[in-house]
Every structure is written in structure tokens, then in C-alpha cells.
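Students often ask what a holo structure prediction actually looks like on paper. The answer is less mysterious than it sounds. You provide the chain, you provide the ligand, and the output is a string of C-alpha cells encoding the 3D arrangement of the protein together with 6-O-phosphono-beta-D-fructofuranose.
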Amino acid sequence: MVRKKIGIMTTGGDCSGLNTVVQRIVDGCKLRKWDIVGIKDGTDGLYSVPAKTVDLTNESFQFASSHLAGSILANGNDGAENFESAARAGKLGAFNKKLQKSLKDLNLDALVLIGGNGSLSLAHLYNEIYNGLQLICIPKTIDMDVPLTDRTIGFDTAVQQLVSYCDQLLLTARSHHRWFVVQTMGRDCGNLALHAGVATAADAILIPEIKFDVDNLIKHIKQSKRDYGIIMVSEAISIRGHSGKAADMISRALNNANIPNRTAFPEYIQRAGDTVASDRILAVGFADTALKAIENNETNVMTVLQDGEYKTVSLSDFFAAGKQEKDPHIIGAMTSNRYVEPDDILLQIATDMGIYIGEKRK
Ligand code: F6P
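The corresponding C-alpha cells follow.
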């Protein structure tokens, strides 16, 4: 077997499951007698000279703790130089060249890049950074907004975190005969709120992809057989003429209708929590697929799960498959986004089960 040197990095926001992927890639490299080096702090670590690295072969990276959230490699800090700040300063060309040089100096045969749709879109757009090595991407995000894959690392754990959180809220909600408006993360994609809402048997689920009517929501809650429960709202929903946080807007409307309620913001615990079994299986499936892609000399690909099958798709197919929109942070860059589709089976199930999800698919 040809000896190879593999680099691995995590970029963008963290989520649970990253350590499982990293750990399984390390194991797979050991099996193949390949060298592996961790790149610390994502893009920031590559921008540093020399690149910031983590030794993943020593005992500090324990198998027993690979189910813990966060990333052993870290994801970089807010103030660091990155694609966004470089673009703002008009220095993107020089920034990308520096990343390319760092990778060259590391003398890698392949790089496993674990990232969300923003990072993967940039990997496609600024592909010259990875010239001379095999680029294998693994999709992760609690938002589940990456096109072409049925699951992303971290999503199922985030849903579980919300379910556990709502289970607790329901107990106090019942004691006080009040409703909780729970605001989920997810950016512009409603997948997280939809899945968590169905799992917790929320009475209403509001997501950005579906227009809703506040009066109908109130009617629905008033007609409910209970005087407590969960209204799950995705962070990016909007109501014409109103501003503020999604949950606050809905809470105000409920107050005006004399429906006792409180808001709840689970925030970053959605990105935490011990990695659930399905995310660990996904991590192993993606790690195995990534290692095989390296053996098969593939490059510029992303691992995906499609109808139960693990495989790779090209980054250009990933990019073309989503809705291409301006990157909200990086001037001149585009991101490929996925949203809840109108024919999503969970939308139908939620409606059939009497959950209010709004009126019209946008
Ligand atoms: O993309 C993951 C995510 O957690 C979103 O759901 C959320 O809107 C955002 O990141 C929060 O980002 P930050 O870590 O910059 O606050």
C-alpha cells in the first residue's frame, strides 16, 4: 500500500460528531499505515506560518472521549483573519495564496475538510488553494442545509438536544398552564425546527420556508385540547411589520391574545451534547467513504448519504444542486444552500397529525 500523508481540519461552526469523524479517520489512517496531521483552528491555523498543527497519533486524542461535542482541532476564533476579513480588505487573492503555500509546506497527499455549506462552497469556488493534493470534504452542520446528502454530521444530535430541552420545559409548562415559544437555530433553513418540532410533538412549527398567519396560529393554539405546550420557531422566520427575535415576535402576538407563554432560547446547546448513535454511524460511514476516496485517487469530492448509500459526489455537483445565493459574509462569494422542500414528507406528516405549520409553501 502506498504510504500517504493526510491532513484533517474542521471549519465553520462546531457541532457534535466532529470528534467522532476525526477519531475514525485517525483509526483508518493507522490501519493503512498512513501519516495524519490535524490542522488546528480551521482556516486560521492554515493562515498562520507555520500552520498550526495537532498531533493526532499521541494518546491525548483518546478514543474514549470522541463522542464529546466541540472539535479537538478547534474551529478558529472570531477575531482571526479569515476569508471574510480578507475579502473585506480586498486581499482575498493573497489570503488564498497563503493557505495554498501552507498546505504545500505540510506536504500533504490529501486533505479531509469537515465543513458546512459555506466552507464547502468556498472550497469549490477557491479550489486553487488545494492544487496538488486530494481534497475530500465531509459535510457537517446542525442546520442540515447542505444539498445532495440526506444527513449532515451534528444534525441528529442537535435534534436530540432540542428534544431533551423541550421535555424539561414541558414539565414546568404543565405546572403553570403556559406555552413555551422555543427558538431553534438553523439559519434560513427550517430542517432543525421541523425535525425537533415533530419529535417533541410541538403544537406548531414555524419555519422560514412556509408562510404562516399569526391569527391562524392563535386560533390553533386556542382550539388545542391543552393549556400548555411547545411552539417551535426557526430563528429566521419573519412577520411583516415586526422586528426582533423570532420567538419574541410570536410571544408578543400570543400575549396580545391572552395566551400565557414564555420564550426559550436553547442557543448553543444545540451544537453540544454527546454525539447520538445515528451521528456516530454517519461519522463512521463518512470516514470510511473519505478514506476509500483517497485510495481511489478521487479529489474535489464530498461524502454523502443518499437513500442509505454512502458515496461521494463532486464538489461542482454539490454547488450546482443547491440554491446559489450571495454569501452573507464574503463579498463576491456565493453559497449553495438547501431548504426544506415543499414535498418534504415531514411537512405532510406534521399537517396530518394536527400540527400547525403555516398556510402556504413559499
Ligand atoms: O450554522 C450553524 C449555526 O449554529 C446556525 O444555526 C446559527 O445561526 C449560527 O451557526 C450561529 O453562528 P455563531 O457561532 O457565529 O454565533
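The chain has two domains: 5-154+275-331, 159-271+342-361.
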